[in-house]
Amino acid sequence: MWKVLLVEDEAIVRRSIIGIIDWEAFGFRVVAEAEDGERALKEMERHRPDLVISDIVMPNLNGLELLRQARERDFDGVFIMLTAMNEFEYAQQALEYGATGYLLKLSMSPESLQTTLDKVSRQLTKRAQERSHTQLYTAYPKEWEAIMNGSLRESSVVVSESSAKQEPRDDAWGQVIICTALDGGEGFDAKLLDSWKLMEWHTPPLAHQYAALGMTSVFLWSSKPPRWLGGIPRPGQIAFAVSCLEKGTHASFTRDWQLTLRRLDASWYSGKPGWFRVIPGSKDALPSAFWRGESERLRQLGRSGPSGMMPLLQEAWTDMERDRISWYGVKTFALRALDIIADGRGEALAYHKSQVTRASSHAQCLRTMAAAVDSLLTLSLSRKGETDHPEVNRIMAYIQDHYDRNISVKAMAEMVQLDEKYLSGLFHKKTGESLIQYVQRIRVEKAKEALRFTEVPVNEIGELVGFLNPNYFYRTFKKWTHQTPSDYRRGD
């Protein structure tokens, strides 16, 4: 209910206004009365009303001065002024001071008062929604950070302006439905959830969403929980894992959200999408959020050579699955491991981190890490593994940046102003492979990345990485990988 303070110096007029309609039927309750502006200020401090209906001409402190002082005290409730016909200029002045409207006392009717209250109710509801939007959008990143840090504190989410001194209001967004999906950060939103027809609302909820680490959470705030219609999305309707807490509150928001996040662990390890129901206040044993062996394994990864990285990662994935580490704990470890493997190559690192973030299962995440190790180490060997000859280093860097162009020994020799035959022998001596072999290897590595992480047709990938002849691309790719490009993409 919206709270109302009625300010009028004549008691009989106050009684008449209070009795003219059923206030609660329109969502309002008269919580206090005052006979002048001075008393009204005290009642405003005590009750913090949403609406003040005030006469203009009153003893001690008139309505205009009451409005002015209320604004100076940062009171932002709605003011409706009561006026007589000969006080119309005062009413106009009140509008300039920030009043929402006015009512003529002599001609007030139930209909005119109801029309005014409808207008005020819409204004107050819109204001409450805007404040809630701001408060909640500020809170989500903080609550996410708390979960990621393993901090099981009480929720700091504030969803209304009600305080201990105020009565609960119907506009308070105290109830929340939380549904979280491992959708790669794309595809899941409030509209999709609504299309599944799982619940029926008394009034439309306040819908928000938050995405991070390849998951999307939808929050549906309301004053009353919906009526669940039963059932779950049909298999054809859902392409990823979704967990849903059917009834939560702002007071337990952080824990409730964490329950939906960790309920997705079942799908993470099985690799199967589906709908997972979360019981409010559940005390069931849940997987650990983070892996205690993470720091030591990362140190081992940093000390290992290129050939030792994948065995360490495979062992780590086995241990995390055994300990049922939460999916966001696995992704956190994977992202930190990529920092070590990439060793400062920002552009390549950003790409592989995005692939880890999009992973929807434990196995897929490991495959992504394997591809990242393969690609980043190849880049490391070609860029970081420089020779002691500046012209050879210059050619290697050029090939890395322009592998899709027409590259020949002749062109490279002209670029560094060396004899073509001399350059061929020099390049092989300094790198252990011919210049053409080096170009082929880099192009095949780029083709492997495109096959893994894009849906570009196979016959177009060869051209994208510098093979002008499709047959030559197939032969070269098979020579280096012992697979055709199509077999490689299928994982055969």
TrEMBL record:
Organism, as annotated: Paenibacillus germinis
Keywords: DNA-binding, Phosphoprotein, Transcription, Transcription regulation
PANTHER family xrefs: ARAC-FAMILY TRANSCRIPTIONAL REGULATOR, HTH-TYPE TRANSCRIPTIONAL REGULATOR EXSA
Occurrences of domain HTH araC/xylS-type (ranges): 393-491
Record's protein name: Response regulator
Response regulatory domain: residues covered: 3-120
Keyword Transcription (UniProt): yes
Keyword field contains Nucleotide-binding: no
InterPro entries for this protein: CheY-like_superfamily, Homeodomain-like_sf, HTH_AraC, Sig_transdc_resp-reg_receiver
Residues recorded with modification 4-aspartylphosphate: D55
